[in-house]
Amino acid sequence: MRFWKRAAKRQVHPLHMGLVGRKQLSVSLRPAEWAELIDSLAWQDAKRRSAWAPPEEARELLMPIVRAVLEDVPPDGTLQVTTDLRGLAPQDKAGPRRTLPAPPAVERTEWYVTDPWLRLRADLRDGSVLDLSVTDHVRHRRTEKRSRSGRLKIKVKTKGVARVSATRTLPRGAAVRRPATPPPPFVSVRVREGERTVIRTDAKLAVDAQVRPTPERILDVLTELFRWTPPKAARRTS
Amino acid sequence: MDPAGPGPAREEDQLNRCTVTSGFFVLGHCGRTAVAPCAQCGRPTCQEHYGPDGLCAECRAAASPTRSPYDEQWVRGYRRGYYSRSSQTYGDATWYSGFDEYDRGAFNPGQGHYLGDYDHDGDDGFVDS
After folding, report:
1. Residue of chain B whose alpha carbon sits nearest to that of A171
2. I need a surface site. Which of B18, B48, B77, B90 has the fewest CB within 10 A?
3. What's the domain of life for this entry (chain A) (predicted)?
């Protein structure tokens, strides 16, 4: 192996290799360790046609959420992420197929694909714990119709939702304040007050086989968790 | 934070702290010892947030925005835009103004909002109680 190839390989983080090879990642790291991994991904992402280039989904879907949450994790806190960026194609994500009633010469089958592609847990620096999960549920309906001439027509329709669920467990004794406005219609919120108040938000976002919810939409669901505990307003002197 | 409250020595100490805003949802100010004022906005800035161009991390992110989330600067540029957009999504003007007020509060030294990376005692939390 040539020297430059060996040098290039040395700089690839071990977890980076797993993300490229399997498009999956399951880690629990401190912010400094995340920085090393992200540096490795960034270095290869910037190189065109690199064998170690991370999947596009890592840049478009995963990294914006990780970057945002990491900002709130203290140096001694951890951010756990379990992600599966393989998409809906792998057979292990598809449920059993069932036949639907159909007229003669038409065959209809239906199956669901469940893709829990992101689980995240973070210790935040205000002492609260953030949990996030995103699962895509996509329904596939396949219709096969044979015409009188014997020609076969196949049509597949997909319809899906991404279920985003997030909870924030506040530190002991922390109080909450109802926000001035309700959340948007796609976000539902529940607050369980107690010694450690828990705020939970759920959302159903439209997706299909090709389109996943944007990171910004997922952050929108997280936003509601933090509207209940606004930062202390900074006084202005003039 | 010091329960004894601000005194002359403490106020001087706060004047020399970095006031770069940190965090995304849980906002804070850096709070490390400042080494120089930002050449553009003038806020006291620590070694980590002070760039070779003389700008603080916030001004650098605004001056040269990046679209790659792999870049460390990305989240600083994204945060303000995100607060603005999510404020519209929620129809909640106080969501953005709260962030804006907090961010601009960095220019009022001596207020004791150093709850970020360098938070020592955690006595003054982010949550109103």
Report:
1. B127
2. B48
3. Bacteria
**What does each C-alpha distance from B46 to B43, B57, B69, B128 come to in angstroms?**
10, 10, 24, 28
SS3 call for A9: helix
CB interface of B with A, residues 86-105, below 8 Å: 86, 89-92, 94-95, 98-99, 101-102, 104-105
State the count of interchain CB pairs (< 8 A) between A and B. Answer: 136
Q: Does B70 touch chain A (CB under 8 A)?
A: yes
Specify the 3-state DSSP secondary structure of A190. Answer: strand
Cα gap B109→B112, rounded to integer Å:
8
A46 lies in a domain?
Answer: yes
**pLDDT (tens digit per residue) in A92-132:** 899 999 999 988 889 999 999 999 999 999 999 999 999 99
Query: Looking at the DSSP assignment, which residues form a beta bridge with residue A79?
Result: A29, A122
Average pLDDT over every residue of A67-72: 96
**Number of folded domains in chain A?**
1
Structural domain boundaries in chain B = 8-107
B118 touches chain A (CB under 8 A): no
Instruction: Give residue A83's domain range.
Output: 3-227
* Statement: residue A146 has pLDDT above 50: yes
d(CA A40, CA A12): 6
User: Hunting for tokens 């027509």 — which residue is that?
Assistant: A153
